[in-house]
Structures are given as structure tokens and as C-alpha cells.
Amino acid sequence: MHKTLTFSVAALVGFGATVALAPDAHAVPSLSTRAMDVAKAQKGDPYKWGAAGPNAFDCSGLLYYSYGKVGKKLPRVAQSQYNSSKKVSPANRKPGDLIFIGKSSGGIYHAGVYAGFWSGYGWILDAPKPGKTVGYHKIKDYTAGSPRAYYGRY
Q1: N or C: which terminal CB in the chain sees fewer CB atoms within 10 Å?
Q2: Could you give the 3-state DSSP secondary structure of residue 6?
Q3: How far from chain centre, in Å, is Cα 103?
Q4: Is beta strand 135-138 parallel, antiparallel or unpaired with respect to 86-88?
Q5: How many whole angstroms separate alpha carbon 44 and alpha carbon 41?
Q6: Maximum distance among all Cα pairs of the chain, rounded to whole angstroms
Q7: Rounded to the nearest 5 degrees, what angle is found at the Cα of 32, between the Cα atoms of 29 and 34?
Q8: Among 53, 46, 47, 55, which Cα is nearest to 110's?
Q9: What's the whole-number average pLDDT of the chain?
């Protein structure tokens, strides 16, 4: 039976069919997925310098709060969060990874959650600046000129 099923799937794939496997019903969401869900729930909360929630955030405060809610204590400021993260190349980034903005890896001044790529742009979920709220923003708006995006994972 198993060999026949394997052959049948291979034959279908060879003819352009798509095979989808059911997700494991018992799979536990990753730490970054759970933290991103917490960050998403803060969408619309105001930016406030030095704030780490629950009703207002600065950029690193949003990460500190979101990861703390899922049981992972992060350093409080963006540079320290970057320093303690596992570095990820842009080619290997995935939604839920952390994104850090700076002129160099030693000059990080902004942080958020990499939200993915759609509508032709990479997106960050973050608390951007005074007068703005937690939400999705284009990464290119942070990297115009000389700043760069760096990625990390916990």
C-alpha cells in the first residue's frame, strides 16, 4: 500500500498536480510566532519613548513586552536585543524574526518584527516614532540613505 501511494503521489506531481500535507494538529507554534501574535495584538497602540506596554510602546519596548508575554526575557534596548540574538541573513529571514535598523551592526537604533514580503515590499511590525502607532510599515522607509536592516532570532 505504501509503495502504491508513493508512486501515485509522484505520478501526480509529475503532471503538475499540487500535493498539500495536513499540518500536524499537535504542532506548537514557535516562540517567534507566539511573540509576533502578541505584537500584532498591540496594533494601534501609541508610540511613547521609554514605554514597554501594555498600552504604549517604543520600538524595543514592543519586542521586550511581546517576548516577555510568551516567556522569553529580552534585553530592554534595541542594540542589546540585536547583540543577544542569533544573527539571520536577509536571505534566511522569515516572518517573526526580529529586524534591527542601524548604520552598522554596532549602531542599532530601531527594532521591530519582520512581518513578511507582500505588495512588492518587505514589512516591519513596530512602534515607529512619536505621533505614530504600532502597526505595519515598509522596511524601505527605514533604510533610505545609509541605514541597513539586520535580522536576528531568539
Answers
A1: N
A2: helix
A3: 20
A4: unpaired
A5: 9
A6: 63
A7: 50
A8: 47
A9: 88
Kindly state the cell numbers that stand for 106.
554596532
Q: Which cell numbers hold the place of 37? A: 501574535
User: CATH number of the domain that 103 lies in?
Assistant: 3.90.1720.10
In a domain, 49, yes or no: yes
Q: How far is CA 44 from the centre of its chain?
A: 17
Name the pTM for this structure.
0.81
With contact defined as beta carbons under 8 Å apart, do 57 and 127 qualify? yes
Containing domain of residue 132, as a range?
29-153
Taking only the tens place, the pLDDT of each residue in 40-71 is 999 999 999 999 999 999 999 999 999 999 99
Residues 96-125: tens digit of each pLDDT: 999 999 999 999 999 999 999 999 999 999
> Is residue 17 within 8 Å of 7, Cβ to Cβ?
no
Burial of 2 (0-12, 13-18, 19+ CB in 10 A): exposed
φ/ψ bin of 53: left (φ > 0), alpha (ψ from -120 to 50), beta (otherwise): left
Q: H helices of the chain, where?
A: 2-14, 31-40, 59-69, 78-84, 140-143
The number of distinct structural domains making up the chain is: 1
Does the residue 39 lie in any domain?
A: yes
Q: Is residue 92 part of a domain?
A: yes
